[in-house]
Specification:
The complex is a heterodimer. In chain A, helix 4 packs across helix 8 (154-163). In chain A, 47% of the residues lie in helices and 0% in strands. By secondary structure, chain A is mostly helical. Chain A is elongated, with a radius of gyration of 23 Å. Chain A folds into two domains: 2-35; 52-241, Cytochrome c-like domain (Cytochrome Bc1 Complex, Chain D, domain 2), CATH 1.10.760. Chain B is mainly alpha-helical. Chain B has three domains: 1-66, no CATH class; 72-167 and 261-287, Cytochrome c-like domain (Cytochrome Bc1 Complex, Chain D, domain 2), CATH 1.10.760; 182-255, Orthogonal Bundle (Cytochrome Bc1 Complex, Chain D, domain 2). In chain B, helix 5 (104-119) crosses helix 12 (270-287) and helix 8 packs across helix 11 (246-255). The longest helix of chain B is centred in the first third of the chain and has 20 residues, at 30-49. Chain B is elongated, with a radius of gyration of 35 Å. In chain B, 24% of the residues are buried. Classes of the chains: A mainly alpha, B mainly alpha. Chain A: The chain crosses the membrane at residues 12-35. Chain A: This is Cytochrome-c oxidase, cbb3-type subunit II. Chain A: Keywords: Heme, Iron, Membrane, Metal-binding, Transmembrane, Transmembrane helix. Chain A: GO terms for molecular function: electron transfer activity; heme binding; metal ion binding.
């Protein structure tokens, strides 16, 4: 064995070629699946890009590091499906950059938390978790109710997502700031405009219970309330979903 | 440079020499390199047996045809079938019929408790006694109605929820929307405090009675005892959803209240909703004298 290796070591070009060959194997296994991603993501009805308010909420979710304790990935295990609902599909995170699957559950999975609780509960819980869930170890995020949401950056935020493949239209990007404000204000009366741009599955509510302003709490609750609610499972092709 | 035997250790050297220093040729132990080759062989076998690598339109499905999604679907279906068999009675009978069966609580109470804690306790508490801003389910007072049918409907479609058949109830924002003046609100608050025997200003409360009759009695009843099945609570029983302090009442009259209960028809099965209906009924019954 020693002598074979010695021969190889002393032919620098052959040795380089062998190194290249072995290293490119690693690359192949990492990169090749990315070229078939179109085929990996299921064809589903109902998925749409996040509205600007939800996207802002997602940014707050990432900023506050919620992923460190909450996963958004219902695994293909009976216990997971029994507790949280249908296992997560690839299609459900296709507009997430980066995805929030997470790998640790200090708190529960949030992939289908949308619609499970009322907005008021989310606000009470985010402000002071132990007031509604005894023994919870989650930190409080009271300040989110006081912090006005910066809606000026939303067009840029949508554009950044568009560059990495989220199909936002020029119109959606242009009106991102006011769309965010209107979604948090049912009195504003732009329901038709918003459903025209983002479809019927959009919650237009005063999420944080403060009708006069749009706060980071509005954005985060809007995001949580849409999680897992978009895909229409009734029309999901069983063969496609089984892969 | 050829490898030679080192005098001191008796081991061969690599044959390299740097400034008179030579290196012993100590290969990876045979057991370790064997492990590596076995792993490589095993991965090749697994590659053949299980799904492994994507192609443009498909992927290598493996000889065993294994799919984690198919497997979990089978397991979940088996579990559902077992549950359906164990809880058949909840599928066969209406909730009104079920409420007549005396030993159901004894037989299923514990199992339904798990369902309750997974879905309902976050708002209504583990003991069903509610908490600030979320109503008590265990007392004898009902916002809508305590009949099994009506509780089932609330569970299915919620209150102030996006479902089309949801129950709708809203305490108007009398202050914010300019329906009552500031002093009228103060008077009404004192009157409401008097209804439950709390400390109050009798003079203001007397005037407040008129405000109450004009603006509040339509929903809360002439005596403020609620029970009209419209979601308006009793103000006289000393139990409060949003707090019974003077400050909390001012807040309620000024900004209104419209608590939301999610509808569960899309999240839970009809059987599960019937089970939870009974669970809520049983809690209310315990409280009755």
């Amino acid at each position: 064995m020693g002598t074979r290796h010695q021969k190889l070591e002393r032919h620098s070009i052959a040795f380089t070629l062998v190194i290249l060959c072995v290293a490119s194997l690693g690359g192949l296994f990492e990169i090749a699946p990315l070229f078939t991603i179109e085929n990996t993501v299921e064809k589903v009805d109902g998925m749409r890009p996040y509205t600007p308010l939800e996207l802002a909420g997602r940014d707050i979710y990432v900023r506050e590091g919620c992923y460190a304790c909450h996963s958004q990935m219902i695994r293909t295990l009976k216990s997971d499906v029994d507790r949280y609902g249908h296992y997560s599909l690839a299609a459900e995170s296709m507009y997430d950059h980066p995805h929030q699957w997470g790998s640790k559950r200090t708190g529960p999975d949030l992939a289908r938390v949308g619609g499970k609780y009322s907005d008021a509960w989310h606000v009470a819980h985010l402000r002071s978790p132990r007031e509604v869930v005894a023994g919870s170890v989650m930190p409080g995020y009271r300040f989110l109710s006081d912090q006005r949401l910066n809606t000026d950056i939303l067009p840029a935020s949508l554009r950044a997502n568009q560059r990495v493949g989220v199909p936002y239209s020029a119109e959606q990007i242009e009106h991102a700031s006011e769309d965010a404000r209107w979604q948090a204000d049912p009195e504003a009366g732009f329901e038709d405009v918003l459903t025209g741009r983002y479809g019927d599955k959009i919650n237009i509510r005063d999420f944080d219970g403060q009708p006069t302003r749009v706060t980071e709490m509005d954005a985060l609750v809007a995001y949580l309330q849409v999680l897992g609610t978009l895909v229409d499972f009734a029309t999901l092709d069983a063969e496609d979903a089984a892969r | 440079m050829t490898s030679e035997i080192d005098q001191a250790s008796g081991q061969p050297t690599t044959g390299h020499e740097w400034d008179g220093i030579r290196e012993l040729d100590t290969p990876v132990p045979r057991s370790m390199s064997l492990c590596m080759w076995v792993s490589i062989a095993a991965s090749a076998v697994l590659w053949v047996l299980y799904p492994a690598f994507p192609f443009i339109n498909d992927y290598t499905r493996g000889v065993l045809g294994y799919s984690s999604r198919t497997t979990v679907t089978q397991k979940v279906n088996q579990g559902n079938a077992a549950r359906q068999a164990a809880f058949r009675i909840f599928a066969d009978k209406t909730v009104t019929e079920l409420a007549q069966i005396p030993d159901l609580k004894h037989r299923f109470g514990e199992a339904i408790g798990v369902l309750y804690r997974d879905n309902c306790s976050a708002c209504h508490g583990r003991d069903l006694a509610g908490q600030a801003n979320f109503p008590n389910l265990a007392d004898a007072h009902w916002l809508w109605s305590g009949t099994p049918d009506d509780i089932e409907l609330t569970l299915q479609h919620g209150i102030n929820h996006s479902s089309e058949d949801t129950r709708y109830a809203e305490m108007p924002a009398f202050g914010r929307d300019g329906m009552l003046e500031k002093d009228e609100i103060a008077q009404a608050v004192e009157y409401v405090l008097s209804l439950s025997g709390s400390d109050h200003d009798t003079g203001l409360a007397e005037i407040g009675a008129g405000v109450f009759a004009d603006s509040c009695a339509a929903c809360h009843g002439d005596a403020g005892t609620g029970g009209l099945g419209n979601g308006a609570p009793s103000l006289a029983d000393g139990a409060w959803i949003y707090g019974g302090s003077r400050d909390a009442l001012h807040e309620t009259l000024r900004h209104g209240r419209a608590g939301v209960m999610p509808g569960w028809a899309n999240r839970l099965s009809p059987e599960e909703i019937r089970m939870l209906t009974l669970y809520v009924l049983w809690a209310g019954q315990d409280d009755k004298p």
